[in-house]
Specification:
The protein is mainly alpha-helical and 159 residues long. The protein has helices at residues 3-18, 23-39, 41-44, 48-78, 83-86, 101-113, 139-157, and strands at 90-95, 117-122, 128-133. It has two domains: 3-44, no CATH class; 48-157, Alpha-Beta Plaits. It is elongated and about 80 Å long.
Length: 159
Amino acid sequence: MKLPLLVIILALLWLAITGNFSGANLVFGAVIAAGAMFLLRDSVAPPRALKRLRRIVSLAVLFVYELNLSAIRVAILVLTPDLKSALRPAVVTVPLKVKSDAEITLLANLITLTPGTLSIDLSPDRSHLYVHALSVTDPQAVIDDITSGFEARIRKVFQ
């Protein structure tokens, strides 16, 4: 529950308990409620674990969405009558903002599990990930898709 709403509820409860429904008593109850919420804010506010769980679920939903979208794209590509002209394989260098082993491994695995893309290698200085894509018309679009999608959500999860 949001803290301002909780303060209002507690102030109204104060009015009901005291039986005095004056404006001054409402303000006094709100001040007491705000002070109590300030002292108990860590106990009342949603825990950090819940926020992290929401971020993990958000990453999982993004992965399922990208998995389905890329599976459809690969199926359309494979069913194209002139497959040779439709294929445009390329290796794209993705600059990394994630730094830890867990973040890089998760990003590389999510890319590899998505149909049509494959994580090939990591640069020796761990600043770039090399990704093979099945059909690339714009390399920058592939980079932007990875950095604004999977990488951004992974960074939020590991904050």
